[in-house]
Amino acid sequence: MRLSLAQYKRNIARDLEVLLNTRVAILAEELAPYPACRDSIVNFGLADFAKLCLTSSEERKEICDRLTAAIARHEPRLTQVRAHLVDETGMVNRLSFAISAQLRALEDDDRVRFDVMLESSSLHYSIR
After folding, report:
1. pTM, two decimal places
2. Which residue from 83, 108, 109 is spatially nearest to 97, judged by alpha carbons?
3. Hey, which residues does 111 pair with through a beta bridge?
4. Which uninterrupted H or E stretch holds 16?
5. Of 22, 36, 79, 83, which residue is most buried, by most CB within 10 angstroms?
6. DSSP labels for 69-102?
7. How confident is the model at residue 90 (pLDDT cuts 50, 70, 90)?
């Protein structure tokens, strides 16, 4: 049974939410002597960045870079992944991101966008 494009995107969104809400136990620097581990399940998820200041533009960029790297590494259905911060006035204790990417398996030139919200108090990501 072939999935519709909408169902395919929903499945990716569900899996992205799991990926973004999983924290890696071993830091990338510690895995440097073991290059085969970099792309393995050992490195699935995001490094904890609770120590980062979410109001700093440099640290927000670092979060975007981490999001991009984790998705590019662990979501094979997407290519050309980009994450960027979305400025939303009036947002308190939340950050919004847009993740855009190319669907790998489709012959069409379909780009997708996922709207992601990060609750700063819980560091929980949700995809809208």
Report:
1. 0.85
2. 83
3. 102
4. helix 5-20
5. 83
6. HHHHHH-TTEEEEEEEEE--TT--SEEEEEEEEE
7. low
